[in-house]
Amino acid sequence: MFLFPRNLPLVVIPVWLLFLLCTFSAKTFAQTELWTELSKGVHSGTYSNWPKSVFMYSSESDVQAVITPNFGGRIVHYSWRGKNLLLDVPQVGEKGNFHLGGHQADIGPEIRELPAHPTLFMGKTSWQHKPYTVRILGDPDPALGVAMEKDILLDRDTGALALTQRMVNLGKTNVSYSVWSRTACKPGGYALLPLNKKSQFKKGWTVHSVYNGSFVFDGEKYVSLHVREMDGVLVVYCDSEPTKLGTDSSAEWMAYVYEDLLFVKYTPYFPSGDYSDGGNTTELYFDRDVAELQALSPEVELAPKQNYAFPEKWMLIRLPKPVLTFDEARKLVRMIPPTPFKR
Fold first, then answer.
1. For residues 44 and 38, is the Cβ–Cβ distance under 8 A?
2. Coil, strand or helix at 194
3. Residue among 213, 217, 206, 184 at smallest CA distance from 291
4. Closest to 257 measured CA to CA, from 166, 309, 323
């Protein structure tokens, strides 16, 4: 009976994460074939016509997360009392057409226009579990030579979700990539992106566009009624023509409010890191169908069998009423707890 197929050195493990990572002892994980022995807070079933999905649930917090091992190990559902803020995957089953939805740890930087990597992005994965905890193990993608692993822990008391996304070089040569954390939410809400007071960008943020056939980030010309800078925070109404924004924020959080639910996504910032996607640490893509919150790790070089861990934390905050205006959205910043990553 296998438990861990890989014994790899970690390139970066934040000190604050040691406790979380220690909970993933090989002796405590159960293997997925033992469907009748799933752990407390973890069970398997069909979700949106995707069989063998993994459900994580805490009755104490009324929060549920759902993962689809047969669709890239995506987190496709994160809800309070059944209200899912993430964009749903289509109800077409395992053999249907690809559709963006939920959360995926992708490989960047996007600006380099890497080759398509469907094995990593939406291929089948294996998984292991213990109480309120799931580990996703992806196969190496032939196009990139890397695999993605995810450790996911649901806090039974608060409903917060802790993720460790691990990029593993299983090829025979050195590679240099970043972890590109992409969380697709339902459109029609307001995104909150804190700006860097010492930003390298003229306006503190940039817009993704195409120049001479290549992707670039423009920090000067863009104007939109859907985007407002309000007291050091970019407030964006996510329901318009396709748009992508970027910031070099060091605040370590970004947020999205949809009706009466506020979603906060925390990721660490490394001052000396090589943020090679135009200098951005966080990005936002939105159109009429999706609002995708994106966070980037620094680009790192990995020798064969090395890996790089990029953590994040999610939380949901229930609001007394739906948020309907830019001003109401901006006021929510005071409700967002401090980042858990500050040293």
1. yes
2. strand
3. 184
4. 323
pLDDT digits (tens, 9 = 90+) for 80-93: 999 999 998 765 44
Structural contact between residues 22 and 120, judged by C-beta atoms closer than 8 angstroms: no
Distances (CA, A) of 213 to 111, 114, 115, 196: 12, 15, 16, 29
What's the rounded Cα separation, in Å, for the pair 296 and 107?
9
Closest by alpha carbon to 160, among 60, 73, 256, 26?
60
Taking the model in full, what pTM does it have?
0.87
The answer to whether residue 6 sits within a structural domain is: no
Mean predicted confidence (pLDDT) in 287-295? 95
Q: What is the mean pLDDT of residues 240-266?
A: 96
Residue 294 sits in which domain range? Answer: 15-335
> Cα(229)–Cα(105) distance, rounded to whole angstroms?
28
Question: Would you say 180 and 294 are in contact if contact means Cβ atoms under 8 Å apart?
Answer: yes
Residue 3 lies in a domain: no
**Separation between Cα atoms, residue 291 and residue 289, nearest integer Å:** 7
Cβ contact 255:191 at 8 Å: yes
Domain of 35: which CATH number?
2.70.98.10
Residue 39 to residue 92: CA distance in whole angstroms: 28
Do you find a cis peptide bond into 109, omega within 30 degrees of 0?
A: yes
Look at residues 302, 281, 299, 283 and name the one whose alpha carbon lies nearest to residue 291.
Answer: 283
Tally the residues of the chain.
343
User: Residues 6 or more apart from 119 whose CB is under 8 A from it?
Assistant: 138, 139, 140, 141, 142, 143
The residue type found at 184 is: A
Q: What is the C-alpha to C-alpha distance for residues 144 and 149, in angstroms, rounded to an integer?
A: 15
Q: Total domain count for the chain?
A: 1
Query: Is residue 322 in some structural domain?
Result: yes
